[in-house]
Design goal:
Rpr2/Snm1/Rpp21; alpha+beta; zinc; Ribonuclease P protein subunit rpr2; 18% strand; flat
């Protein structure tokens, strides 16, 4: 079995992310604090955070964006393309993502050809 470098930091990041998501509906400010903690742990250890997790975090206040709990989601049309817009209830910042049925907007890490080896 291979030893994964920084495994303890990944576990800490995962734990802080879960706490942040769990407490978001009760106390969004505390959720933002835990979100800020796990971003700082990842930066300190030069760890890559999965794009799905990055999309759930507000860039300004670092609170977890959950539809109808800590953020409002709406669909906007811009230049014949649809955009999904998240508006953070804590700080008021906006985050936009493209949305179209026939296009594949997944990041390269989410595509199957990016996986070289699965470590269990």
């Amino acid at each position: 079995m291979k030893k994964i470098q920084g495994n303890d930091s990944f576990q800490r990041i995962n734990y802080l992310y879960q706490i942040s998501k769990e407490i978001a509906d009760k106390n969004p400010v505390l959720s933002a604090y835990y979100g800020n903690l796990f971003i700082n742990v990842a930066k300190k250890n030069v760890a890559k955070i999965h794009p799905d997790i990055k999309r759930q975090i507000c860039k300004k206040c670092r609170c977890i964006l959950i539809h109808k709990v800590t953020a409002n989601m709406s669909i906007k049309k811009k230049n014949k393309s649809k955009m999904v817009e998240y508006l953070c209830n804590t700080c008021g910042s906006k985050k936009n993502f493209p949305a179209k049925k026939d296009k594949d907007y997944r990041t390269w890490l989410e595509k199957p050809e990016s996986v070289v080896e699965v470590v269990s």
